[in-house]
User: What shape does this take?
Amino acid sequence: GSNTATAAVLWVPTAGEHLFEVQVDAPFSHVLELDEADNRFEQTLAAPDIAYADITVSDIWVWPGDGGVEHGEPLLVFATVKNDSEIDIPSPVEVALKVNGQRAATKKIDSLAAGEERIIRLSWVPVSGEAAITVFADPGDAIPETDETNNQNGVGPVSIEVLYPDLRVADVSIVGDVQLGSDVVVVIKVANDGAG
Assistant: This one.
């Protein structure tokens, strides 16, 4: 008889021209047919007009703002990451923090809807000195975009001072009367002359 069946496959388009080849009853023939030569169809699809997302990074700030961080505590970096397009990004978006050109921290954003922006927080334990701080969204270019050059933004140099404690014994005193064979309370006052 003359029957028709429809089949569909999912395809994620990429830039450039594409050759589609469709075969039925192949690569091994299982159906006895009058004409086996018409089981293959080939068509070239011109380069599709693909709409891409555009990830941007803006509004970077550092906390504490004065750059003074207690020894062993992290410096926090906040940034706004936005999908500045009309295309949803359903896959995770990696965000990286670079300090003086070296990767210091990473974070993933689950997805970004069209027009959505998120404030992210990254942190690292710094050393004293000057730091050029840069936040990169999609540093590995895993997500195709209309503009790959606006995925980063930075501040700095930021002057960072790691604050250390400086302990000293400020006073020693005895509470009460001192009597032979009796316990006394000794009060020791410790002062921190450092900034941490």
The longest strand covers residues 152-163. The chain has a mean pLDDT of 90. The CA atoms of residues 13 and 94 lie 22 Å apart.
